[in-house]
């Protein structure tokens, strides 16, 4: 549909304090098999390389036309983690960021914030959620433990796709700190 027409592509959503994302965003939908569940685990389908190659010039053109900041190039899972998982952990966010599409933390700063801790060292979930809220995710005091986990999981699928278990750990915290340093808070 034409970009000037309002669509309900984002649905009920939140990003960086905004709740009417449909009014202020351009959605790009990529066709994909999504995920399947087996033995209690979700398995996501990969994206076709040709699809990603077609996405790159389109996204760059939209980003330039609307002056979209890297931290505002987000996924359904980022803006609606309680009801969306897409595009999932196999989406090539790092590669796209290298092309000027979206945000990605500097690895050296992640290592700095990791400060010698093992990546899987548990951290206080409330502290991590505060960082994620400052970056742009919706975090509410009344959220259940499962809802909190889904916010962390959405962040991990985007910025640490190798492990997206929703656990509050040192590596996730370090990535959040590096992103806040690079892109600021909402």
Would you spell out the secondary-structure blueprint of this structure?
Layout: H1 21-24, E1 35-38, E2 41-44, H2 49-66, H3 76-79, H4 93-98, H5 107-114, H6 125-135, H7 145-159, H8 170-183
Antiparallel strand pairs: 1-2
Family: Belongs to the N-acetylmuramoyl-L-alanine amidase 2 family.
Protein name: N-acetylmuramoyl-L-alanine amidase
Keywords: Cell wall biogenesis/degradation, Hydrolase
Please describe the structure with a list of short key phrases separated by commas or semicolons.
8 helices; globular; Muramoyl-pentapeptide Carboxypeptidase, domain 1; mainly alpha; 186 residues; Amidase/PGRP_sf; single chain; PGBDSf; two-stranded antiparallel ribbon
What do you see in this structure?
The chain is mainly α and 186 residues long. Helix content is 43%, strand content 4%. The chain is built from eight helices and two strands, in the order H-E-E-H-H-H-H-H-H-H. The protein has helices spanning 21-24, 49-66, 76-79, 93-98, 107-114, 125-135, 145-159, 170-183; strands spanning 35-38, 41-44. Strands 1-2 form a two-stranded antiparallel ribbon.
Order of strands across the main sheet: 1-2
Report the sheet-strand fraction.
Answer: under 5%
- What's the β-strand tally? 2
Mean pLDDT over all positions: 93
Total individual domains = 1
- Globally, the shape reads globular
Query: How many whole angstroms does the radius of gyration measure?
Result: 16 Å
Low-confidence stretches: none
Q: What is CATH's topology name?
A: Muramoyl-pentapeptide Carboxypeptidase, domain 1
The CATH architecture can be named as Orthogonal Bundle
N-to-C SSE series? Answer: HEEHHHHHHH
CATH-assigned homologous superfamily: PGBD-like superfamily/PGBD
Structural class: mainly alpha
Helical region count?
8
């Amino acid at each position: 549909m034409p970009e000037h027409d309002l669509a309900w592509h984002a649905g009920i959503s939140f990003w960086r304090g905004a709740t009417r994302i449909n009014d202020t965003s351009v959605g790009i939908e990529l066709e994909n098999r999504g995920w399947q569940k087996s033995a209690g685990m979700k398995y996501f389908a990969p994206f076709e390389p040709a699809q990603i190659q077609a996405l790159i010039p389109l996204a760059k053109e939209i980003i330039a036309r609307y002056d979209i900041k890297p931290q505002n190039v987000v996924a359904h899972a980022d803006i609606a983690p309680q009801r969306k998982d897409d595009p999932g952990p196999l989406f090539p966010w790092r590669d796209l960021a290298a092309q000027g599409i979206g945000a990605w933390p500097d690895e050296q700063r992640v290592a700095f914030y990791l400060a010698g801790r093992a990546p899987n060292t548990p951290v206080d979930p409330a502290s991590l959620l505060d960082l994620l809220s400052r970056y742009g995710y919706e975090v509410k005091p009344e959220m259940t433990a499962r809802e909190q986990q889904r916010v962390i999981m959405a962040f991990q699928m985007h910025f640490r796709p190798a492990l997206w278990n929703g656990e509050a750990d040192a590596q996730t915290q370090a990535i959040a700190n590096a992103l806040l340093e690079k892109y600021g808070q909402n």
